[in-house]
Amino acid sequence: MPEKSAGTLATETVASPTIRMPKRPAGTLYRGREGMWSWVLHRITGVAIYFFLLVHILDTSLVRLSPEAYNAVIGAYKTPIMGLGEIGLVAAIGLHALNGLRIILIDFWSVGTKHQRVMFWVVIGLWLVLLAGFIPRQLMHIFGGE
Amino acid sequence: MTTIEAPRTPAAKPQRRRGINWEKWGWMYMRASGVVLVVLIFGHLFVNLVAGEGVKAIDFAFVAGKLADPFWVVWDTLLLWLALIHGANGMRTLVNDYATNPTVRRILLGAILASTVVLLTLGTLVIYTFDPCPAGQPADLLPSFCPVNQ
Ligand code: HEM
Q1: Domain spans, chain B
Q2: Which B positions 90-119 lie with beta carbon below 8 A of chain A?
Q3: Which of A38, B13, B37, B99 is at 20 to 30 A from A99, Cα to Cα?
C-alpha cells in the first residue's frame, strides 16, 4: 500500500505543529536576562561589602587602643595583595551603589520599569568609567610610580 | 441553606493587619539610606584611598587628624550607623530567603542583631571617646598638633 494516498493528505495538513521548547525560559521579566543578573550581582556585592564592613569597624576601633596597635593592623592594608583587594572592594561597592540607584529609579520613577534594561547598561558603563579612574591611581599608590 | 451571593460580589477583603508596617519602613530605609550612603561612601573612599598618597598615608596620626575635626566625626558616625543597619537589614532579607529551617533562621537573625548592636556601640564609643594625643605614646606616632610635638 502506498504511503501517501489521497486519503492521508488531509490528515497531514492538520497534523499538530511541532512545539519546540524554547532554549531558555522565555516570557518572564527576571529569568536569564539583565534583570536577573543585576539582582544576582547586587546580592553578592551586598554580602561581600557587609562582611568587609564588620572587619573594618573592628580594625578601625584599634585607634582607641594605641597608635602602635592601629599602625600594625593598618599596615596590612598597604601590602600589594591588599592593594589589589581594595580594587575588588571599590569595584563591588561601585556596582552595588550604581545598581542601588537603578533599583530606586525603578521603584519611584514613573517610567523606571520600562527603562530598567537600558539603565542596567548605563550602570555598567558608569562603573567602567569609575574603575578606569580608580585602578591606575591605585596601582600607582601600591606599586609606586608617581 | 446555602446562600448564593449576588453576581459580581467582590471577594472578601483580606484583613489588613493593624499597627506599623515594619517591612514597608525597612524597604523605605534601604532606599533612603542608599541615597545618602552613595555620598558618604564615595567621599570616604576618595579622601582615604584616592587623594594624596592613598592608603599608604593612613596611620594613627592620619585618623587622629580627621577625628579631631567635628565634620569628620559627624560623617563617620552617619557612615557607621547608616551602612551597618543597611547591611544588616539586607542580610536579614537573605536569611529570610534561604534559611528554611526555623531554628537556623532564628539563630542567624539573632546573630545579625547581636553583632549589629555590639558594633554600633563599639564604633560610636570609639568615635566619641577618642583622644588624638594619648599620654605616654611615642611622639613620632602622634599628629603634629599634639603638645608633645610642639
Ligand atoms: C553605596 C550606597 C548603597 C546603595 C545606593 C545601596 C542600595 C541598596 C538597595 C536599593 C538595596 C535593595 C533593597 C531591596 O531590594 O529592598 C540594597 C540591598 C542590599 N544592600 Fe545596599 N546599598 C548601598 C550600600 C551598601 C553597603 C555599604 C552594604 C553593606 C554594608 C550594603 C549591603 C546590602 C545588602 C546585604 C543588601 C540586600 C541584597 C538583597 O536583598 O538581595 N549596601 N542596597
Answers
A1: 28-141
A2: 90-91, 94, 115, 119
A3: B99
